[in-house]
Automatic annotation (TrEMBL):
<feature type="transmembrane region" description="Helical">
    <location>
        <begin position="39"/>
        <end position="63"/>
    </location>
</feature>
<dbReference type="Pfam" id="PF10321">
    <property type="entry name" value="7TM_GPCR_Srt"/>
</dbReference>
<feature type="transmembrane region" description="Helical">
    <location>
        <begin position="75"/>
        <end position="95"/>
    </location>
</feature>
<feature type="transmembrane region" description="Helical">
    <location>
        <begin position="107"/>
        <end position="132"/>
    </location>
</feature>
<feature type="transmembrane region" description="Helical">
    <location>
        <begin position="206"/>
        <end position="230"/>
    </location>
</feature>
<feature type="transmembrane region" description="Helical">
    <location>
        <begin position="242"/>
        <end position="265"/>
    </location>
</feature>
<keyword id="KW-0812">Transmembrane</keyword>
<keyword id="KW-0472">Membrane</keyword>
<protein>
    <recommendedName>
        <fullName>G-protein coupled receptors family 1 profile domain-containing protein</fullName>
    </recommendedName>
</protein>
<feature type="transmembrane region" description="Helical">
    <location>
        <begin position="152"/>
        <end position="176"/>
    </location>
</feature>
<keyword id="KW-1133">Transmembrane helix</keyword>
<dbReference type="InterPro" id="IPR019425">
    <property type="entry name" value="7TM_GPCR_serpentine_rcpt_Srt"/>
</dbReference>
<feature type="transmembrane region" description="Helical">
    <location>
        <begin position="271"/>
        <end position="294"/>
    </location>
</feature>
Length: 359
């Protein structure tokens, strides 16, 4: 496929929201509605739930004073994830329940597909950078450690944003297909499907699959084999959390990438297409689930942000060492409180968000 500027979102925006000839539905074409209420309801409800539980984590990271590279990557990833969940879950579910296809809402589906495309490709780069950051944490001599030096990292973030902009505005978008409850490049309006192949998307998916998998294997190998003999319970739990997060994130991204490349070029059974759609959904949604289950710092900060102190005290939800000390003092446990004060004195200079394992 040769690059066609008329197939991009940039062309549509610069031409008064007028879709190019490649995306104009024939006037004599009839497209019946094909409702998929059950699977549509699943994507809609699950997408809303994942978005609701992701938002507090995103706000915690956004307003955090920590500016470590890992937190900047996680914040940008949250933006991409929330955008992608809107497309691959909420919009997918709503269109599925109604049974609408491209020709029912061409401009809306076109723009949603462009946003979904940019969010996916931008998120892929972030996940690779997060894997590199983890490798640098366990091995300071890792070959790509220079990426996270402050001047270089600023340029890296600009490159990521530029890559997102390129994927969103200068490549052809994915288009919703209600029959398969998934997104393809071909809008199914009677033209040759080979004209719609998105080569940058294919290269992106192959790259993320080939690069991220060995990175996460390297990470797990070092945590298991190099640090596997640590007798520290804290080290054991931290290592376990990192491995679980790495395996989950790599699995969903690699699965979604492989399946979406395959189904753009080869006949694919409906069940495999649905698995690919679910993999895309949870490549974005699994991140917030990991924050709530494996990252105590973000979880506690989110609860502090959502629940007033009176409610936390009533249900004994002591978020952080300060509230734990206060609760113990109120109960008259001066000995434990004194010990906690000593611990706090030794850790006062440590940024709260650097004291926990981050994703």
């Amino acid at each position: 496929m040769t690059f066609n500027n008329e197939m991009t979102l940039y062309f549509v925006l610069s031409n008064g929201l007028d879709l190019g000839e490649m995306y104009k539905c024939p006037p004599n074409m009839t497209t019946p509605f094909y409702p998929r209420p059950i699977i549509g309801a699943y994507f809609l409800i699950s997408g809303i739930i994942l978005t609701i539980i992701y938002l507090p984590c995103f706000l915690v990271m956004l307003f955090s004073k920590c500016r470590a590279p890992s937190y900047q990557l996680m914040t940008l990833l949250a933006i991409f994830d929330l955008s992608a969940l809107t497309v691959n879950s909420i919009i997918t579910g709503a269109l599925g329940i109604q049974g609408a296809s491209f020709c029912h809402y061409p401009l809306f589906i076109y723009c949603a597909g462009a946003i979904g495309m940019g969010s996916w490709m931008g998120g892929c780069v972030i996940c690779i950078l997060m894997a590199l950051d983890r490798c640098v944490e366990i091995n300071p001599h890792f070959p790509f450690a220079f990426i996270f030096y402050k001047p270089v990292f600023r340029f890296t973030m600009l490159v990521v944003c530029g890559y997102w902009a390129f994927a969103t505005f200068f490549t052809n978008p994915v288009i919703f297909n209600v029959q398969y409850m998934s997104w393809f490049f071909d809008p199914n309006i009677g033209k040759d499907s080979d004209l719609y192949h998105n080569i940058p998307h294919t290269l992106n998916n192959l790259f993320v699959s080939v690069i991220s998998t060995p990175l996460y294997i390297y990470l797990c190998y070092h945590l298991i084999c190099i640090f596997g003999y640590s007798t520290s319970m804290w080290m054991y739990k931290s290592k376990q959390q990192i491995i679980i997060q790495a395996v989950i994130l790599c699995f969903f991204h690699a699965t979604g990438a492989y399946i979406y490349v395959y189904m753009q070029f080869f006949p694919t059974p409906p069940w495999l297409i649905i698995i690919g759609q679910l993999a895309w959904q949870y490549s974005n949604g699994c991140v917030c689930l990991a924050y709530w289950t494996l990252n105590r710092t973000i979880r506690n900060s989110a609860i502090r942000m959502m629940l007033p102190k009176k409610i936390r005290k009533r249900f004994k939800l002591h978020m952080g060492i300060e509230e734990q000390i206060e609760a113990e003092r109120n109960e008259g446990n001066n000995v434990v409180a004194s010990t906690a004060d000593t611990i706090m004195a030794h850790t006062a200079k440590v940024a709260p968000f650097l004291m926990e394992t981050t994703m």
